[in-house]
Amino acid sequence: MRISTSTTVLVALVALGGLSLRMHRLGDRSLWEDELSTWTSIRGTVMDGIRYVQMPHPPLYSLSCRVAAWGEPKPSEARLRLPAAIYGAAAALAGGALGAVMFGRRIGWAALIVLAFNAFLMKYSREARMYSLLALTTTVSMLCGYALVTRRERRSAWGAGYILSTTAMLYTHYFAPLALAAQIAWWAAIVTLRRRAEGAGSAPTSAIRGAEPSGSHPEGRSSATGRGGRCELVCLVLPLLLYAPLAVFFVRHVLPNKLGWIQPAPWWAYLHFLGDAVLGFFDEGVAGSTATRGAHVAAGMFVAIALLCGAIARLGAHRGDVMREDEDAAAGRLLLLFWAVFVVGGLGAISLVSNPVFVPRYAITALVPGTLAVLTLPVFRGSRALIGAAALLLVGNAPVAVTECLGESGPDGLAGIIRHMNDTLGKDDAVVVVDFPFCPNYRNPVEMGFEYYGLRSDLPILRMRGEQERGQLTNSEALSDPRRLHIVTLLGDFDATLRATGRRVEIYALPPYRYFVVHPASGNPGVSPAAKP
Question: Mean per-residue pLDDT for 28-34?
Answer without folding.
Answer: 87
